[in-house]
Amino acid sequence: MTACIRFDDVHAYYGGAHILHGVSFAIEPGERVALIGRNGVGKTTVVNSLLGIARIGSGVARIAGRALKNPRTFTAAQLGIAIVPQGRMIVPNLTIEENLILGAAPGRKGYWTLETILALFPILKERARSPGTALSGGQQQMLALGRALMGNPTCLVLDEPSEGLAPVIVDDVADIAAKVAAQGTAILLIEQNLSLVRRAADRFGVMAKGRIVSEGSMAGLDIAALHAHIAI
Amino acid sequence: MIIQLLNGLVYGGLLVILSSGLVLIFGLRQVVNFAHGAFYTLGAYVALSVSAFVGFWGALAAAFVALSVVGIALDRFCFRPLQNRPHAVVLIITFGLFLIVTDLVQLVWGRESYSLLPPPDFTGPVDVFGTPYPVYRLVVLALAVVAAVALQAWLRLTRIGLHARAAATDIVATGIQGVNTDRVGALVVGVGCGLAGLAGAAAAPLLALTPSMGDAIIIDSFVVMVIGGLGSFGGSIVAAALLGQIQAFGAVYMPSLTTLLPFVLMAAVLVIRPTGLAGARIS
Amino acid sequence: MVLESSLPLPTRQASDSSRSRAARWLVWSVLAVVVTVLAPTLCSARVIAVSSQALMFGFLAMGTGFIHKHSGLLSFGHAVWFGLAGYSVGILATFSGLPIELAIAIGLVLVVALAALVAMVIMRSPGIAFSMLTLAINVAVFELFNRMRGATGGADGFSIALPETIFGVPTTSLQSPQTMFVIMGITTIVTVGALTLFERSHLGQLTLAIRENPERARFIGYDIYWPRVIVFVISAALAAIGGLLFTLYTGFVSPEVLGFMTSGQAMIMAMVGGTAAAWGPVAGALMFFLVRDRVTFLGDHWMLPLGSALIVVMAVWPTGLVGAADFVSRRIRGAARRLHG
């Protein structure tokens, strides 16, 4: 099977600034993978090189086997990769329902529809007609998750979903990630919150200075040792 | 009195069509299209040239389509590639385009003035509360209402309209959701410029066609856009209605000052509300 | 959403000491003065006549370039200040009976005061609206003078009654291209120097900081409204000086000089010349006038090539002649450094 996302020795840049120094990894269909590391090591740049926001100088990034050449922001989503960006990026002048519809991909049918998503997030159903920004941070995260699922992606990319959320809401995020994975959707989780990583991923890679410096599987892993790896 | 009121509404209607196009383009690309007045002029001339073959209503449609194509090209070859350049650069380029289009109109149609006849069924006067009034002016007013309603329906009720509204607020967030923002951009700028062409064609039977016919009205629609709050349709509709009345009554009661009145109105609004009538979105 | 618009500034090397910089200024100024004084004997009368007009409109371009540099704003209406200076001095000189020197002083003060009032209104609105506002004001003022019958002659303009001498200079020699060229050259050199000094002053640096990031400047505690108003007033004053000199030179004023196309052309001169350095718009103006003088065969169809040239410059080389000069001088210095090892 072709990997949902595959990076081969990717070097990525913002203008002249060299951020990723040869990143390689692959996410197979249905896999749950976490990318961890401190702030500023290039985790979000991995996402941004899928979006064309960071420029890929050398190496190849593939989505569903297709090499990305000068991707536009919408390329990844059209190839089945839904991204929940850092900061959620709720469109403020649209209602909650409109924000959800924005994520729909008319060509791709699957389990997720407006109904199933509103059933999963009752709060969004209650307030479907209010502006997206009328929600709290945690509710906005749910909206961003629901919006990403609307496209029935083959892989869901979550960039720092726990950022700024209360622990109880982080638990909700973990539950939803489990439900998503149960549908056979692959997950790439970019996180610093290790308890979320432990619950939502099977495999991880640790990033430092624009490289993946170690990889391993969650099973039987000593979290304390991992903590030491990424702690400041 | 009623005549001035109607004249004001008609002129306000033209301003609504023109400034809606400006607002559409500004919303998506954050650029004020300085070539918009030249597109209005071009629309009138296109209508003039094709009306002999396709009739007036066909000419109206042709002007919209022709200028939409110009708009799509403008987005594809100017706004999109220069997306990350300072807005001043893009603004100056649209000014350069204004010079080019104005000159092209002179090259193709010459400097003499032309007139376009209104459609045969709408040439005469009609009785409005006991006063005869040219019926074609009412047609222009109706056209403006239809255009504004259709535009809002398109933006509010269709999926592509949803995409356009989303992209106008946050083009990156919209793209990440899989919306082809390049296509949305081309479409929105196309419709925006098409509206300028439509306004020009609709206005053509009201006045003489000259290469500089767009200069005065585009200034007024800039004023409308600023008073309305730059990115707001509602604000610019209110401002257009206001300015239309001011121009119409001013022309009768203060003819020597009409050209200063829009500026006085604008200064007054800006002193009270620096971001315009509906200016919450700016700042 | 970024509302403030600005062109990229070529960053200058900060390595050279202020003394060597002062020396370089001195060399350039002396060179410019020498060229100014010698040009009337070296160049054809036509080139001199065109160039002295270019330098008058160069002040208008300098005003447009100055406000762009120091606030990132594009003015499509600076011909208003150019033209109003001509009208106010012309009206005062012709109808008030004041001595010309006093008429000039009062005229300039009036124009600057009006510019301050206008600036206080339009600097309240967001930057994006600025271009549209200046254009609208320009058209309104043009129409006002165009329609005003009576003494100012409406669309025809009017001839100004000038005395035999102005500031001790015979009016006839003031109106000869050769003399005016030298006067324009010297005033331009002094003005460019003054603007360069302004840029290095505290206020100049503050306005640049506000241009780059108004929010940050405000956060640090600077008022961002008044410095922008001052920038507008200075830029209007520059245009007014140009308008005054032009009016004295021609002895005539008409609405044509305050039309919006004059503003647009000044904007083009400033952009083609580049606004990063004060001399840029002047160079742009000289180029504009000298080229226009050579392409008279275009007749009425000058807008098409001008618009095309403008688009090409902005798309390919948006820093203009200043950017080009910077590029060349950096190349030369780089080559020299390599030669010296």
From TrEMBL, chain A:
SMART domains: AAA (SM00382). InterPro entries: AAA+_ATPase (IPR003593), ABC_transporter-like_ATP-bd (IPR003439), ABC_transporter-like_CS (IPR017871), BCAA_Transport_ATP-bd_LivF (IPR052156), P-loop_NTPase (IPR027417). The keyword Nucleotidyltransferase does not apply. PROSITE patterns: ABC_TRANSPORTER_1, ABC_TRANSPORTER_2. Keywords: Amino-acid transport, ATP-binding, Nucleotide-binding, Transport. One of its GO terms (molecular function) is ATP binding. Gene3D superfamilies: P-loop containing nucleotide triphosphate hydrolases. Pfam families: ABC_tran. The keyword DNA-binding does not apply. One of its GO terms (biological process) is L-amino acid transport. Belongs to the ABC transporter superfamily. This is Amino acid/amide ABC transporter ATP-binding protein 2 (HAAT family). It comes from Chelatococcus asaccharovorans.
TrEMBL record, chain B:
Its main location: membrane. Keywords: Amino-acid transport, Cell membrane, Membrane, Transmembrane, Transmembrane helix, Transport. GO terms for biological process: amino acid transport. It is a multi-pass membrane protein. It is found in: Cell membrane. The chain crosses the membrane at residues 9-32, 44-74, 86-109, 135-155, 185-210, 222-246, 252-272. The keyword Acetylation does not apply. It comes from the Bacteria. The keyword Zinc does not apply. GO terms for cellular component: plasma membrane. GO terms for molecular function: transmembrane transporter activity. Belongs to the binding-protein-dependent transport system permease family. LivHM subfamily. PANTHER family: ABC TRANSPORTER ATP-BINDING PROTEIN (PTHR11795:SF442), BRANCHED-CHAIN AMINO ACID TRANSPORT SYSTEM PERMEASE PROTEIN LIVH (PTHR11795). This is Amino acid/amide ABC transporter membrane protein 1 (HAAT family). It comes from Chelatococcus asaccharovorans.
TrEMBL record, chain C:
The keyword Transmembrane helix applies. The chain crosses the membrane at residues 22-40, 73-95, 102-122, 128-145, 180-198, 229-254, 266-290, 302-328. GO terms for cellular component: plasma membrane. The keyword Transmembrane applies. InterPro entries: ABC_transp_permease, LivM-like. Keywords: Cell membrane, Membrane, Transmembrane, Transmembrane helix. It comes from the Bacteria. It is a multi-pass membrane protein. One of its GO terms (molecular function) is branched-chain amino acid transmembrane transporter activity. It is found in: Cell membrane. Its main location: membrane. This is Amino acid/amide ABC transporter membrane protein 2 (HAAT family). It comes from Chelatococcus asaccharovorans. The lineage of its organism: Bacteria, Pseudomonadati, Pseudomonadota, Alphaproteobacteria, Hyphomicrobiales.
